[in-house]
Amino acid sequence: AQKITQTQPGMFVQEKEAVTLDCTYDTSDQSYGLFWYKQPSSGEMIFLIYQGSYDEQNATEGRYSLNFQKARKSANLVISASQLGDSAMYFCAMREGGVILTGGGNKLTFGTGTQLKVEL
Amino acid sequence: GAGVSQSPSNKVTEKGKDVELRCDPISGHTALYWYRQSLGQGLEFLIYFQGNSAPDKSGLPSDRFSAERTGGSVSTLTIQRTQQEDSAVYLCASSERTLRREQFFGPGTRLTVL
Description:
The structure holds two protein chains of two kinds.
Chain A: E1 4-5, E2 10-14, E3 19-21, E4 24-25, E5 32-39, E6 46-52, E7 60-61, E8 64-69, E9 74-79, E10 88-96, E11 109-110, E12 114-119
Parallel strand pairs in A: 2-12
Antiparallel strand pairs in A: 1-4, 3-9, 5-6, 5-10, 7-8, 8-9, 10-11, 10-12
Chain B: E1 5-7, E2 10-13, E3 19-24, E4 31-38, E5 42-50, E6 65-69, E7 75-79, E8 88-95, E9 104-105, E10 109-113
Parallel strand pairs in B: 2-10
Antiparallel strand pairs in B: 1-3, 3-7, 4-5, 4-8, 6-7, 8-9, 8-10
């Protein structure tokens, strides 16, 4: 079974509109972390936002917010007021395990990504 | 401050040759990770170093792949007897020793095996 599922291979949004990128995850761990990364055409992976499994409030970072629904195991990224520079590939990722700082509990498992295109 | 750096940015090699890819993590970051990104396989974890602990090598695809980290800083990923299926972008990341441990990635090394 896929640990991270991103069902939208491509999305279009008009400039200044909001867009939601979907992400569902599968884990039996109680403690885990969810991340979103942006990868522009230049190739570098840029960290956007983090949500811990025990965080009670949805994470926000500027125009990015994470709609975390724990019971549904979903962690959708919401980008408000889209800009042309937001056009990129977006990856959802999960780190299983909590405060363990050694061993296997630190690698990220990535989804297949969503290609977002912002149009005028 | 300086981010994660990787060298070379591009590497073209012939099948059967060995290659070394280098990663310089962010200063002060104790954890270092290698990932591989290819069209067919997406983003895959390869190996993880944390301080002086034994590395987590669970993602290395074969014994042709190895990595070391010297002095808790710079890391080298070595691929021996390269195969065409090794062609990919190899990404290095580092993180601090915090609960969040967000990983900051370098620009990657694009490896092409002819």
